[in-house]
Design goal:
The complex is a heterodimer. Chain A is mostly helical. Chain A is 74% helix and 4% strand. In chain A, strand 1 and strand 2 form a beta hairpin. The radius of gyration of chain A is 24 Å and the shape is globular. Classes of the chains: A mainly alpha, B mainly alpha.
Chain lengths: 325, 304
């Protein structure tokens, strides 16, 4: 197991290098100097020269890339933003990421809390009204993009009923592992969470349903029923545990939807997270921040995939890793 | 089937009917029988019709601003009303179909070109080519497509509204090709072992000839199904990028951008948001359903 984890982490290094290399050189090759964008068109040439030197943009591209990688590896320095204040990219990410993580975590919990029971119930009531209703809802959620769903919720719950504020993120300041974040009041949390959780919840429900349908047709379930175990005992002790295994891999993908979704949802509800920040940086061509976010995303996904694979091995002893032998 | 066996149909007609039915006409027959396929197919044809004839169908130019009538519901020559700039909603919706469809088709064409060439190369040459392709696609599959596209668009920012099309094409194609490459590789690996390919090789057909005359024609149906389902994802991705303000740039109309621009007027003009939403959702659903129906029609064994 240890060898397996070590190999996977070693394999992550070339991936991260590739991500940083591609983002760096695509940024380098794209038209328009970032300094011109920073200062505006009719700027003082001396000031441009000075800033280019400050950012090291007057060096050959390979040297620039090399020093970026060196800085990132030796002291976690991802460069500085081209935006106002010229703040370090790591600082910007450290400020914005906890909010995104909090929202994603809450939505993940909501998606699991809704999707898993819905899928199980639909499977138990196969082809009955509840099953059809759940599957119809799933289809609706999968095909409705967040940017259509969210304004409709706003229209009804904020503008018409006035239950929730239509945007914003206000609440208590908190600190977790040295990172500061704002834990929003529940009124601010509900709508973004529902929008973000809807698609993963639908996918989880669909997957849980088909996995459950497959499981309850197995021989050991028939045996358990035949020997007179109560239906609830068969469900919880025998069926659920086995049906949940394949769903675990989907949980990893779910995380992908959540992170992608947070880019859209944060922009709709003006939530100060990494998704909102990224789109602002893209609009203002703040390459160092985009590059930093790309690396962060890569690290997150490599970690999530690894954790899912390890959990799979822990929960299902039949899965044996080459490194674990 | 039973009706075909009535005595008044002669054996000759039956035989000739049998002989004329290719796998493709079989598939078409099955497709025509499915109501879902018919409905979604009609919707897709309608969208293509609107996209192709947008200049004739649209009552106004997509960027014509009727400053005297902004944010109206309907009337004054604007059947579906106008937005905050006085641009005609119906015209922008029609041209939006053109934008969505062209993004979908061009991105698919690029994906197809890269995917087929790399997929065939990896399957046919094997060895190092195959290893490299598999590693690269593995790494790319680890990331969610849309997030990847958002970051790519951020890095290759367009310099003008017209070049925003190019940026969207490149970003979405770069994200999408690994799926096609993996599909082609898998198909080619399976087909390579068939007797007729072996026979072709034994009679001295070149590698190029085997790929183009034997492998490709036999993997057409899974490729067509994948393209149909993919186009829904591409249209949705373009709409999302445009919604975020980093896709197709104004004055060019995009459904995603229209949805985004309608948000400030949600209370007074909700239909401004509803029209493009309906257009987008129905087109995406239609391509998804049609792709599923096509899969069932082309390969009846897969039907659940």
């Amino acid at each position: 197991m240890f060898t397996y984890i070590r190999n996977r982490i070693l394999l992550a290094i070339p991936t991260l290098l590739a991500v940083s290399f591609i983002t760096f050189f695509l940024g380098y090759l794209s038209p328009g100097s970032p300094i011109d964008i920073m200062l505006g068109q009719h700027s003082d040439p001396a000031r441009v020269k000075q800033l280019e030197h400050e950012y090291g943009l007057d060096r050959p591209p390979l040297v620039q890339y090399g020093s970026f990688v060196w800085g990132a590896v030796t002291h976690g320095d991802l460069g500085r933003s081209f935006g106002t204040g010229q703040r370090p990219v790591t600082q910007i990410i450290a400020e914005q990421f906890p909010t995104t993580a909090f929202l994603a975590l809450m939505s993940m919990l909501a998606a699991v809390a809704f999707g898993i029971p819905a899928g199980v119930l639909a499977a138990l009531k196969h082809n009955r009204l509840l099953d059809r209703a759940t599957m119809g809802f799933v289809l609706l959620m999968v095909s409705t993009p967040a940017f259509v769903f969210a304004p409709l919720l706003m229209l009804y719950f904020s503008l018409k009923l006035g239950w929730f504020p239509s945007s914003g993120w206000e609440g208590q300041e908190a600190s977790f592992l040295g990172l500061k974040l704002i834990v929003p009041d529940w009124q601010y949390l509900i709508m973004p969470m529902v929008v973000l959780a809807s698609r993963p919840a639908a996918l989880l429900a669909r997957f849980m349903r088909s996995s459950m349908l497959e499981t309850i047709r197995q021989d050991y379930i028939r045996t358990a029923n035949a020997k007179g175990l109560s239906p609830s005992r068969v469900l919880f002790k025998h069926a659920l545990k086995n049906a949940f295994l394949p769903v675990l891999t989907v949980l990893g993908n779910t995380f992908g939807f959540l992170l992608t979704g947070s880019f859209v949802v944060e922009n709709i509800f003006t939530i100060p997270g990494i998704g909102y920040q990224s789109v602002q940086s893209i609009l203002s061509r703040d390459y160092p921040v985009i590059q930093g976010v790309a690396l962060l995303v890569a690290v997150i996904f490599i970690t999530v995939n690894l954790v899912v694979d390890i959990l799979y091995g822990v929960l299902d002893p039949r899965v044996r890793y080459e490194g674990a032998k | 089937m039973a009706t075909e066996m009535t005595p008044d149909v002669s054996l000759e007609t039956l035989v000739s009917r049998r002989a004329s039915s290719s796998p493709w006409s079989d598939a078409m027959r099955r497709l025509r029988r499915s109501p879902v396929a018919l409905l979604s197919g009609c919707l897709i044809l309608l969208m293509i019709f609107i996209a192709v004839f947008a200049p004739l169908l649209a009552p106004h130019a997509y960027d014509a601003q009727d400053r005297a009538h902004t944010l109206i519901n309907s009337g004054n020559g604007h059947a579906l009303g106008t937005d905050n700039l006085g641009q005609d909603t119906l015209s922008r919706l029609s041209y939006g179909a053109r934008v969505s469809l062209s993004v979908g088709l061009i991105v698919e064409a690029i994906e197809l070109f890269i995917g087929v060439s790399l997929g065939l190369l990896a399957a046919y040459k094997g060895g190092l080519w195959d290893t490299i392709l598999m590693r690269v696609t593995d790494a790319m599959f680890a990331f969610p497509d849309l997030l990847f596209a958002i970051l790519l668009v951020g890095i290759i920012r367009p310099t003008s509204p017209a070049s925003s099309f190019l940026t969207v094409f490149v970003a979405l194609a770069l994200v999408g090709w690994p799926g096609m490459a993996r599909l082609v590789r898998g198909q080619a690996l399976a087909l390579r072992e068939k007797e007729y390919v072996e026979a072709a090789r034994a009679t001295g057909v070149s590698g190029w000839g085997i790929c183009t005359r034997h492998l490709l024609p036999n993997m057409l149906s899974p490729i067509i199904v994948a393209l149909t389902v993919d186009i829904a994802g591409i249209i949705m991705a373009e709409a999302t990028l445009s919604f975020l303000g980093i896709g197709i740039q104004p004055p060019f109309p995009s459904w995603g951008r229209m949805i985004s621009d309608a948000r400030p007027y949600l209370r007074s003009q909700p239909m401004l948001l509803v029209y493009p939403s309906i257009a987008l959702a129905s087109v995406v659903l239609a391509f998804n359903f049609f792709g599923d129906a096509l899969r069932d029609a082309l390969d009846p064994r897969l039907r659940q």
